[in-house]
Amino acid sequence: MIRRIRRNRIVSKTEDDDGSVERVQPNKVEHRDVGDDVAAIGDEREAQRNDGVAGQNEGRGAVAENNADLVDPAQNDAVQNDPAQNDPAQNDPDQNDNNDIAEGKWLSYSELMMDSYPPKSKMIYLKAYKMFERFLKSRKQFVPNERPTEVQLLNYFHYLRNEKRLAPTTMWSTYSRVNACVKRLYGFSLKEYVRITDVLKSFESGYTVKKASIFSPAEVFIN
Questions:
Q1: What is the pLDDT of residues 52-82, one digit of tens each?
Q2: pLDDT tens for residues 92-127?
Q3: Which of 50, 129, 138, 170 could form a disulfide with 166 if both were Cys (CB 3.0 to 4.6 A apart)?
Q4: Which residues neighbour 26 within 8 Å (Cβ) at sequence distance 6 or greater?
Q5: What is the pTM of this model?
Q6: What is the residue extent of each domain of the chain?
Q7: CA-CA distance, 33 to 129, in Å (whole number)?
């Protein structure tokens, strides 16, 4: 049997045994649209891709179930019932830091400054300032929680000089002690009141420091 294709037609010729030729009507070739073939191939590939994704998801679900089976149920119950695990404050680092700080009293400025005095001379400084406050109260010039004025301090040192008859060296010691207190109580120095140091220096005029008499060798050995 011989097949020949001419212009998209198939012609068949059959020869019998006796040499006669039998012609057969040409077969028509069926033509298909190329676009339909491409769409069919795309649908087939999309279906294969979806089948692969579904298989992966099923595999992951199976692994997750196997891992869940490996966890001890008693351990899960212990974690769920643990207050530390369920308390959000335990997971907050700032909250943990706050738990380390105990509640206490908030100190005022004057209370904080009380610890800044020299331990050995603290009571001497405070006593000297108390005497100054008593002087102001006696003159009805004391005002609580207000820094002393220059006039008040000048009056006080005038009182110590003329009424108490204190020596200039003792007045300088009083000045130093009162100055230490006003620094801590009101945050300023008596050096701002320059007239006070001028007055104290004037008190030294004509003052002679008394020296202790020296014993002679004969007085030392007197029984």
A1: 656 666 666 655 565 555 555 566 555 566 6
A2: 655 555 567 778 889 887 788 888 888 888 999 999
A3: 170
A4: 9, 10, 11, 12
A5: 0.50
A6: 1-31, 32-95, 109-203
A7: 114
